[in-house]
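Note on ligand handling. Small-molecule inputs were canonicalized before submission; formal charges were left as drawn, and no protonation-state enumeration was performed. Where a ligand contained multiple stereocentres, the stereochemistry in the source SMILES was retained. For NAP, this procedure yielded the string shown in the input block below.
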Amino acid sequence: MRRILIIGATGNVGSAVLSQLTVTGAQVRALARNPDAARLPPQVEVVRGDLTVPESLDTCLDGIDTVFLVWTAPPAAVAPALERIAKHARRIVFLSAPLKTPHPLFQQPNPSRKLGEQIERLIVASGLQWTFLRPGMFAGNALGWWAPQIRAGDVVRWPHLAAPTAPIDERDIAAVAVRTLCEDGHAGAEYVLTGPQSLSQFEQVSTIGRAIGRTLLIEEMPPDEAQREGLPTMPASVVNILLDAWAAAIGQPAFVTSTVAEITGAPARTFLDWAADHAAEFRA
Ligand SMILES: NC(=O)c1ccc[n+]([C@@H]2O[C@H](COP(=O)([O-])OP(=O)(O)OC[C@H]3O[C@@H](n4cnc5c(N)ncnc54)[C@H](OP(=O)(O)O)[C@@H]3O)[C@@H](O)[C@H]2O)c1
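Structure output:
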């Protein structure tokens, strides 16, 4: 049986991977910077570690053969952390992005893309058996972006409402991750993962309104206002990355794949399913 380490276990995708893995009976360990605050399921072994402190990774990786990696730490820490991972593990599943997909949403030059490419290059050169998961926009972004406005009233102001994306439920990314972590046959695979439908941002906000039984007034925010005032839950650098991506994406449908269904045997959840499951978080 594989012994799996989840790095990013307290985050959106890592926590879903962890909860789905624990029901398979796999041997799972979670790395956490602060195990006391991590609030992970009691049956999970939690080991303190920090990607920016390479020597802290050895204990976390002891006896591990497969790693699930989510990277949100600073770029300078990538090379030393991957060196430690490659010393212990044989296999890595990395949560990346659709860096090679020829759709304008995914092809704008930005620092996040550069970091993803750097991590992938180092993983490929490391000798580890690798699998790259390449999800598009997460459905859960809607919680940070729109829930505060929807909880406060009926008006949602947002830039580039015509931009379509195919939001993917983090549970579907996790379901693919679990397959790639537990099964053979995924070495060298790069899975572009999306939700089942292309929906403009306007349609996504309307869908949330439908799920919570309210009619929302959805207003276009000029991009320069978003730049000046910022957008909820994101630093200015991320606002600029998203404004560029959305602007470039307008005018054609979002890129949609059937990879979730092909790998898991179950269709990817719709954005309406996701919104219905999170309705309470949008209600005041
Ligand atoms: N959002 C999207 O639409 C989207 C789309 C495609 C790809 N992605 C990619 O998905 C990734 C983000 O996934 P996510 O939303 O699941 O992340 P997240 O919720 O922000 O979680 C990040 C995780 O990394 C951990 N972490 C941060 N710094 C660490 C460090 N120095 N050492 C050890 N652990 C550390 C955090 O642990 P703590 O609890 O200690 O903070 C947390 O568990 C990014 O790489 C992003 O580029 C996102």
